[in-house]
Amino acid sequence: MAERILIVDDAAFMRMMVKDILTKNGYEIAGEAEDGKRAVELYNDEQPDLVTMDITMPEMDGITALKEIKAQYPEAKVIMCSAMGQQAMVVDAIQAGAKDFIVKPFQADRVIEAIQKALS
User: Fold this and answer.
1) Residue 91 — very low, low, confident or very high, per pLDDT cuts 50/70/90?
2) In sequence order, what DSSP letters do the residues of 20-84 get, joined into one string?
3) SS3 of 74-111
């Protein structure tokens, strides 16, 4: 069965880009969220195999959402997505339990590599 992935990013075109990479590689999309608050709700509803989580978002940022998800589901697998120059936040995210991070603009092979590694 295909692994189900929740895509979280406040930019619709970024979600579309990630969705495109994932579906082409045989993954199923569990849902999409435009902010951290919605990500936590959707995680509860869908229990996806993995989450791609943007760091900078309105309402609730990705690191806060990551911490909330990990508090309820310690086994949750989350990959953070960051823009260049967010290294400090990436360190916070890894300490908070993120499996990996991918840097925008996304390279399809790097995205897939990070996801396969996190799911294995």
Assistant:
1) confident
2) HHHHHTTPEEEEEESSHHHHHHHHHHH--SEEEEESS-SSS-HHHHHHHHHHH-TT--EEEEE-T
3) CCCCEEEEECCCCHHHHHHHHHCCCCEEEECCCCHHHH
Report d(CA 108, CA 111) in Å as an integer: 5
Query: Residue 16 corresponds to which amino acid?
Result: M
Dmax (CA) for the chain in angstroms is 37
Q: Is 11 helix (H, G, I), strand (E, B) or coil?
A: coil
pLDDT tens for each residue of 11-20: 999 999 999 9
Counting residues of the chain whose pLDDT is more than 90, the rounded percentage is 83
- Positive or negative, the CA dihedral 111, 86, 64, 31 is negative
User: How many Å apart are CA 27 and CA 5, to the nearest integer?
Assistant: 7
Give the number of other CB atoms < 10 A from CB of residue 50: 22
